[in-house]
């Protein structure tokens, strides 16, 4: 270990981490509050472990490209078959693809990015009214790092969460006024797109188009509106730790900043922003339902000296209540290919997700 690594290890060990996490959390000003205060060095709670930092230095930059699927013309049979084939290949090999000609107007996408910026850049006292770590009763909440207290490294981002996971809907008045209109319009379009994608994914598995929607996989959405401020020492921290998503499907709109990466062939691959494009990834639940035919893969977001980076993800989590069991679909299991997962409740899976560090997937807990 070099002298720099030794001194950093001593620095990180010689403090009361829990107290520093709590002190930061209690400001309710988030990462943006640190940047607004003019810090030049990031607090220790954000510094990644030495082994992770050393590993980054040994990583080779990948030149691979995430698949791009053009959704235009899917009402024509031959065109639809081609799109289904492309989505099948991307879902089996990558677990990720980018989407163009998806039907969501560019004005709606830009409005959602702008609405997220407006929320995070408003007066901090107004934001504090939404600050909470209460996942169970607060449907709208602003916070820094969902896993702040049980991850090795605090993530360099602030988030506005808008959850419809339990009730399936939200009253417009509950959404902060500064982004209310943009949110409602975005959700209206993304819900429909989610249902369309689940039809195509059903067909990609050789099932009837309505299979996943009949199982209510498109229900219970959660919107997470991320704001990644510029970081004075991006090489020491991370915007979002590597993780897989505890849902069926995620649809993401990102600005043009870059920073999102996905694991493919044991390499980190950049998901380069496409103007007016969307990013789609397979969640853990769909990997379970497809009995490992589709893959839910690790992805992360790098911190950057230039910012803010803004992205908005819509998670389709299925039925939370009343309790509904999900598991490998009988159409995809046989003597030759037995079920590799046990059945689960969405509520149990998500409880496990929030009780573990972000970089620990829940899939292994439900594997037979």
UniProtKB/TrEMBL annotation:
SUPFAM superfamilies: Clavaminate synthase-like. GO terms for molecular function: 2-oxoglutarate-dependent dioxygenase activity; L-ascorbic acid binding; metal ion binding. Residues 219-318 form the Fe2OG dioxygenase domain. The keyword Transmembrane helix does not apply. One of its GO terms (biological process) is response to molecule of fungal origin. Keywords: Iron, Metal-binding, Oxidoreductase, Vitamin C. Pfam families: 2OG-FeII_Oxy, DIOX_N. Belongs to the iron/ascorbate-dependent oxidoreductase family. PANTHER family: 1-AMINOCYCLOPROPANE-1-CARBOXYLATE OXIDASE HOMOLOG 1-LIKE, OXIDOREDUCTASE, 2OG-FE II OXYGENASE FAMILY PROTEIN. This is 1-aminocyclopropane-1-carboxylate oxidase -like 1. It comes from Nicotiana attenuata (Coyote tobacco). The lineage of its organism: Eukaryota, Viridiplantae, Streptophyta, Embryophyta, Tracheophyta.
